[in-house]
Design goal:
about 45% strand, 18-stranded mixed β-sheet, about 5% helix, mainly beta, eleven-stranded mixed β-sheet, about 400 residues, globular
């Protein structure tokens, strides 16, 4: 598969100093302080824990946050799941001491999947949905209805894929895959290519998917549709003569313009130099950043920490992730049920343990419904549960 079009025009993009702005993340025209004088933060990445919501190693207190989906519909806190990609606006991030997780208060949490559509094929560790290639790895979480991971899927069944887009291959790296029951429309976020604005055509492609926008008012899309732009589509659930009909098209840039603190996790989609690269369409200036575990390369999974200035992420730290390993997961709260065998449910997540788990301030006998515990662990091989490495008992 060829690289996405905006990759081929990287030199032109940088030469024109095109800065990515967003409509989904909010904030423009100076640092947004919410009228309090305190710097606000932005994070985008997969959810890696609960108690409240943990994204990019920050524990966001979500008790007073507005939680919405990609369409602005309200989402219950209990509906948030491991691996969902979340965009979080919050107050200042406070660094944790002695290895503790950093904290902040979330004002708004937006979750958005990359793809909702029918499974067209499965091969090895890759599935095809709406013409897009989606790969899975050890960190991909799966809904409990998919205990055999990709082997549980059936051709034609509708799935919802949370993912990190890979601009190098035009593929997606899944962070969570679940089933979706008879949606009214399908969803796809990707990069526009082969745009034909002529009155007789009004078509473009996202990866291998041909799309027509003939049913939409073109004057409302002039600022959104362009080759190389990242857009979010709502699609009719059946193609017409092999072409899919767009019911709605939105700008889908990945970050706001200004934030004193920002953390974005994604794949490196383009590189201009050793210190200038792109992550999910966001330009990163890492000239003054600390790099962990080597230099960036196309397709690498990274977490970038810094500040957003004029749509550019001025990085202070670039952390390169190991995709062959599952990241640590943190869960904190009351046990939902009396354990069955060597497993229990915490914050809606099944936790499994064995004789190698470390207990602090308690033992296996203390695992009862209502007990307050902190769990550290990794994703189980089936992607549906957490394997605990440490369980700490807290006082109520």
């Amino acid at each position: 598969m060829s690289t996405w079009p905006w990759m081929r025009r990287l030199a032109a993009v940088l030469g024109a100093t095109v800065l990515v702005t967003a409509c989904g993340g909010g904030g423009s025209g100076g640092v947004d302080t919410g009228g309090t004088g305190a710097p606000l933060s932005f994070s985008k990445g997969p959810i890696s824990g609960f108690g409240s919501v943990i994204v990019n190693a920050v524990r966001y207190d979500d008790r007073f946050a507005t939680i919405v989906d990609a369409d602005g519909n309200a989402v219950r806190r209990d509906d948030l799941k491991l691996g969902m990609v979340a965009e979080i606006d919050g107050d200042a991030i406070v660094a944790g001491s002695a290895g503790a997780t950093s904290t902040a208060r979330a004002s708004r949490i937006r979750i958005a999947s990359e793809i909702v559509g029918p499974v067209q094929g499965v091969s090895g560790q890759t599935l095809t949905v709406l013409g897009q290639q989606v790969r899975v790895d050890a960190a991909t979480a799966f809904d409990t209805a998919l205990p055999l991971r990709l082997a549980s899927l059936v051709i034609g069944g509708v799935v919802e894929v949370y993912a990190l887009p890979d601009g190098v291959t035009g593929r997606y790296l899944a962070t969570r895959i679940g089933l979706k029951a008879a949606p009214a429309s399908y969803r796809l976020r990707g990069v526009v290519a082969s745009l034909d604005t002529s009155a007789s055509a009004r078509t473009f492609t996202i990866g291998a998917l041909p799309v027509t926008y003939a049913a939409l008012a073109s004057e409302q899309l002039s600022a959104v549709l362009a080759n190389g732009r990242i857009v979010s589509l709502r699609l009719a659930t059946a193609p017409v003569n092999g072409v899919w009909t767009a019911l709605r098209i939105d700008d889908a840039s990945a970050a706001p313009s200004e934030r004193n603190q920002a953390r974005i996790e994604g794949l490196v989609t383009a590189i201009a130099s050793a210190t200038t690269f792109f992550v999910d369409g966001v330009q990163v200036n890492a000239s003054g950043a600390e790099f962990t575990d080597g230099a960036v390369a196309l397709g690498l999974r990274v977490e970038v920490e810094g500040a957003l200035v004029g749509g550019v992420l001025i990085a202070s730290k670039v952390d390169i992730k190991n995709e062959s390993e599952s990241a640590e997961i943190e869960l904190d709260g009351q046990i939902d049920n009396d354990p069955v065998g060597q497993s229990f449910v915490l914050r809606g997540v099944t936790v499994r343990y064995d004789g190698s788990v470390r207990f602090d301030d308690g033992s296996a006998a203390s695992l009862i419904k209502g007990a307050n515990v902190e769990v550290r662990g990794t994703l189980a091989p089936d992607g549906t549960a957490v394997i605990a490495t440490r369980i700490k008992f807290d006082k109520p």
